[in-house]
């Protein structure tokens, strides 16, 4: 405890809470996912509540609601020297550290003002992984048991911390994540010399096994629930995963149903990979993501486009364009793997390892496999319908349900949510296409590129970034 107090004095002596918030919410903004964008909404007469974008990111609940989270670091002090990280120990930056109670008070006060519905807590590493994880667990314990906060909490697990601390954090958090950062051991060693795949995969496996054990203890399947559409797709990786580990847990344990067991990480675990810092191809990244889903039953893999902030010969120089469009394509491909039954090897290969940034991955796959098209909507099964660009899981289920009672036409498909401007190249209704279309790869590719020609993610970075309460709204 004396060492902790000494560190607090050295790192952030006489820093008031607002100053710490400025430093540590700003330090967290580089950890960007597709759900990380600020929202500012002033109060209006006759309406209840308002919103500010102070290091706020978003997640989505199982019913589709968007939840605003206070996203901060416990500290930006770190004993590691990862080349890509703004908070690495060799950088000369302002450092600060919250106490567990300060984080709790900030979270509760922001919640009372309707700014947030939950907390996203990460941290640099003070002294050691175990020391830092102890402070995180103390924060969660205070928040849940003393402040009685029942909102959503996402916490980053610290690689290298003990199993006991991981279990304690998991019993208090809704979601945990251990960031893998790079898709290969060689890249991780190059850019994060203090980390290794074993250091990251061990807590991932512990969290996965603990989730499975907890679900079995309350009489549920050891695997996390997935989209209902997956059960209709024979090729889905989530149907192919063997249940051996869950079966072994069940056979080796005398487990009875317990009604009052607190869920362990009920929203599952996630991870993140940095895009554009190294030279790994999209194929390597996507194959690693697919293996992570299968091996660790992850809920999400996040892809974070690298923002060049450090001077290093092995990294893109500051001022280099942020690869947001590449990040966007990887998210689209990830969605195809999770909800459409695609395999990473179908979307990319060693011969063609990177996505065509001009069209989305599903369209790119379709134009390269025209032998499967056109698909007849009156007879195709749901797995084939999901391969058609412009048809999503909801629309596919509506088609299968509606065609039992009547013949479908293109107008009815549009009402079901089919995006005909893409789908009409690959569909027939009762044997007829919407327009006379040449099934030629080059012709269809050019037409699809024209459809997306007005979208320029690269130039719109300033409007897509996570906002700052201090820089963007002038609060000092």
Automatic annotation (TrEMBL):
Bilayer-crossing residues are: none
Q: Which InterPro entries match?
A: Aldolase_TIM, DNA_rSAM_put, Endo/Exo/Phosphatase_dom_1, rSAM, rSAM_sf, RuvA_2-like
Q: What Gene3D superfamilies does the record tag this protein with?
A: Aldolase class I (3.20.20.70), Photosystem II 12 kDa extrinsic protein (1.10.150.320)
Domain of life assignment = Bacteria
Q: Does the keyword Cell cycle apply?
A: no
Q: What keywords is this UniProt entry annotated with?
A: Iron, Iron-sulfur, Metal-binding, S-adenosyl-L-methionine
Molecular functions per Gene Ontology: catalytic activity; iron-sulfur cluster binding; metal ion binding
Q: Tell me if S-adenosyl-L-methionine is a UniProt keyword of this record.
A: yes
PANTHER family linked to this entry = ENDONUCLEASE/EXONUCLEASE/PHOSPHATASE FAMILY DOMAIN-CONTAINING PROTEIN 1, TYPE II SECRETION SYSTEM PROTEIN K
Q: NCBIfam families per the record?
A: rSAM_link_UDG (TIGR03916)
Query: What is the name listed in the Swiss-Prot or TrEMBL entry for this protein?
Result: Putative DNA modification/repair radical SAM protein
